[in-house]
Design brief:
This protein has 3 helices and 9 strands; from the N terminus they run ααββαβββββββ. The protein is an alpha+beta fold. It has a single domain, classed as Nuclear Transport Factor 2, Chain: A (Roll), CATH 3.10.450.50. The strands form 2 sheets. Strands 1, 2, 3, 4, 5, 6 and 7 form a 7-stranded mixed sheet that branches. Strands 8-9 form a two-stranded antiparallel sheet. β4 and β5 form a beta hairpin. It is elongated. It starts with a helix and ends with a strand.
Length: 174
């Protein structure tokens, strides 16, 4: 294979590997698989956000704990990344949407976030890893579903109704 063709194939392989890495990133985080998620970062890798009350997490042990113990569940929806690759390093801008809920905290808000990641990657032993990921939030919407209060006559336990039979009034309770 010519040197030019070999370089072009390597560039395509790098892009595909980075796309696969990003697919794993979202799936592993959404599954709360801290071991797998933190393994996508360099040993001193960083995740941080630019929001008020910014998050800063560095190192695989801290990243694993951050993922395993996230109090929310959600789903990352990534858009196609814009990637630049240069001699064993790469950068990307990835627009995203995130849908999050706090299932262990009744009445907690549901969050819909739109933003982007700025990501720096490093190739380590022929494997692409994340060295730094910074989240920027463009917009965030929250809504809260409280549900019917217990005993209101509208909650699930109170909605067992008598079902009328054809012309004979309510069916007998069972």
């Amino acid at each position: 294979m010519s040197k030019d063709l070999s370089a072009r194939v390597r560039a395509l392989e790098d892009r595909i590997e980075l796309l696969e890495l990003e697919g794993q990133y979202s799936r592993f985080f959404d599954d709360h698989d801290g071991d797998a998620w933190s393994g996508l970062f360099t040993p001193d890798g960083i995740y941080q956000s630019r929001d008020a009350g910014a998050t800063f997490v560095q190192g695989r042990a801290a990243l694993k704990d951050f993922c395993d113990n996230a109090p929310f569940d959600g789903l990352h929806l990534f858009h196609l990344p814009q990637v630049t690759i240069l001699d064993g390093t790469a950068t990307a801008r990835i627009h995203l949407e995130y849908r999050g809920v706090w299932p262990r905290d009744p009445g907690a808000p549901q969050v819909n976030m739109v933003g982007y990641y700025d990501v720096a990657y490093t190739r380590v032993d022929k494997t692409w890893l994340i060295s730094r990921r910074v989240t920027t939030t463009f917009s965030r919407e929250q809504s809260t579903t409280i549900g019917y209060p217990s005993g209101s006559g509208l909650d699930a336990r109170a909605t067992e109704r008598e079902v009328p039979t054809a012309g004979h009034g309510p069916a007998p309770a069972q």
